[in-house]
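Structure (tokenized):
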């Protein structure tokens, strides 16, 4: 009996005693391997942090926070976590934008999947949730991965930082949207933050929300500029326009710089919101 034959026999015997290898990986900061894809086009990564409640109420907006702990991020895509994912939103980032954002969605069955494209890799994070009627407290405010705007800065931004371009608006729905939203920005600890949100706080209206469909004007796409320099562009689906909220951050610019958000509606109408970066340190 040759030694090589004996080694192969021992190896086969040991393999026969092993348990079947499972496709799932353990949870890592809320990120889980996607087991149902035979040939994944992306890898599950602990460098993609995805924050949202574990129990959500489908009748109120659900806050989501995303942060990527890697450089060179080109895009962040938010999808439904299904066998055939549906794209909810896509954010294309320019070099000056930081790879983090906060938003709100209207929850349905399943979960959410975030796919991040960097210069060299495609990463993913996944989060499941349970639909529970009446869990409204978790969604009154957006998930904050970045510092909040101080009250003093918020008052200044509302008074002097937000303006619209109604002459560029075509259609009553988009005109109403422009009047109900505001853009505000501030600088804190050498980082600039910008929010697109309703003028009236969600907390003052959340008691009126219910499970019925909401007629909400929406934008098909928007782009954010600092002077003539693009910071990011976004393509947004219907489920993010239920009590909309968006927060981004970027490293370029100084206090006093103007930011312009150009938007386009589904019917081709266009418009702008502008604001000035305020100091909040």
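Design, position by position:
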């Amino acid at each position: 009996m040759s030694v090589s034959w004996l080694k192969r026999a021992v190896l086969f015997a040991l393999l026969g005693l092993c348990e079947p290898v499972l496709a799932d990986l353990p949870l890592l900061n809320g990120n889980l391997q996607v087991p149902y894809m035979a040939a994944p086009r992306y890898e599950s990564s602990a460098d993609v942090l995805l924050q949202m409640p574990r129990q959500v109420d489908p009748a109120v907006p659900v806050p989501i926070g995303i942060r990527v702990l890697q450089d060179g991020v080109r895009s962040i895509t938010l999808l439904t976590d299904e066998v055939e994912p549906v794209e909810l939103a896509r954010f294309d980032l320019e070099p000056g934008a930081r790879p983090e954002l906060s938003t709100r969605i209207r929850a349905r069955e399943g979960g959410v999947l975030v796919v991040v494209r960097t210069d060299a890799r495609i990463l993913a994070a996944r989060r499941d949730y349970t639909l529970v009627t009446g869990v409204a407290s978790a969604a009154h405010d957006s998930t904050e991965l970045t510092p909040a705007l101080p009250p003093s800065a918020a008052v200044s931004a509302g008074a002097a930082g937000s303006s619209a371009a109604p002459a560029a608006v075509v259609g009553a729905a988009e005109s109403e949207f422009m009047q109900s939203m505001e853009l505000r920005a501030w600088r804190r600890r050498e980082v600039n933050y910008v929010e697109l949100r309703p003028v009236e706080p969600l907390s003052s209206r959340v008691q009126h929300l219910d499970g019925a469909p909401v007629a909400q004007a929406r934008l098909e796409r928007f782009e954010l500029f600092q002077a003539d320099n693009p910071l990011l562009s976004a393509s947004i689906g219907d489920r993010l326009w239920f009590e909309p909220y968006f927060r981004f951050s970027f490293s370029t610019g100084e206090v006093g710089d103007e930011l312009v958000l150009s938007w386009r509606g589904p019917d081709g109408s266009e418009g702008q919101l502008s604001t000035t970066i305020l100091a909040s340190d």
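Reviewer-requested clarification: The chain has three helices and 18 strands. The CA atoms of residues 56 and 131 lie 5 Å apart.
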